[in-house]
Amino acid sequence: MTTEGTTLSVIKADVGGFVGHSSMHEALLEEAKECLGDAEQRGLLIDFHVTRCGDDLELIMSHRRGVANTEIHGLAWSTFEECTAVAEGLNLYSSGQDLIRAPSPGGLIRGAGPGVAEMELVERKGETVIVLMADKTSAGAWNLPLYKMFADPFNTAGLVIAPGMHEGFWFEVHDVKEHKKIVFETPEDIYDLLLFIGAPGRYLIKAVYCKVGKEIAAVSSTERLSLIAGRNVGKDDPVCIVRCQEQFPAVGEVLEPFSWPYLVQGFMRGSHWGPLMPVAVRESNPTRFDGPPRAVALGFQLSNGRLIGPRDMFDDPSFDEARHMCNTVADYLRRHGPFEPHRLPLGEMEYTTLPLVMEGLKGRWEDL
Length: 368
Ligand code: 13P
Ligand code: MG
Ligand code: MG
Prior knowledge:
By secondary structure, this protein is of the alpha+beta class. It contains 10 helices and 15 strands.
């Protein structure tokens, strides 16, 4: 079944790191390009771009099958499996890391481990999209920038001066612990929205919609690996698709939140707070203390479903200051060593290896 609109599917997984968790071996990218190239030849995909953020393999695909399509999800899964085999052949680190369980009997990848962000859209004249991808951090890391892009007039001038944006947006928020969703309207509900999204470990912005025209504006991956696996298997390293220009934030308004390195959970062993560093793809190699966490942004123009691009949007000296500040903040936090608030609070450490060490010391505790 094909649809009228163009669907963008960004599906990602860590299937093996090189070296350790710091980056990706070229052979994995080559294998993924071959798999998706074959699907393009067969007519399943219109176009694709394979890239990485740190050790995460990112499949950016355009097609006409709509969101949550079993053939597209099956293609992503088999691509990750092929790449896992390549990773195993090279004995790369933690091969197949995010492939936790086989896709659902229906063939969808949700709940299997990989992160998924998909949107179907009717292409506008000059359809501009940005794909955000992160490494060494959790799903929920996009809460703060999405709020700024779509609800903060100090970030987005268009909210004040552009007629298409002035009405505001709808935010769909998911509670990933209780499996519930709620929709907030902005600007009316911003205090209520912030009440929840200020706790990004549990309440995640899944999607944003324009009030005018009721169109999809942004969508993010909300898969929490630790909740899926019930243990620590690496961080979620989420992705997000954002439409830009006209009734959506301008490209510069989408990128502006990253000019200030806000704190996210992740970094070493997924157990520390660290500043998010906006970088070019080639610099998405988190090495110092397995970090600091990274974000990359690839821009495309969509043309009849073809992905014209990418442009590597953070490959720009205007983000030098953010990178510099990021290193300063990382220095400051690192001096806390194993102390909170650099290390995550105990509640958040539940899925790490810390409880195993605590368990071994149980017998040494005496009543006061
Ligand atoms: P990834 O989630 O990127 O694999 O990182 C895991 C980790 O533990 C880094 O120290
Ligand atoms: Mg890894
Ligand atoms: Mg990763």
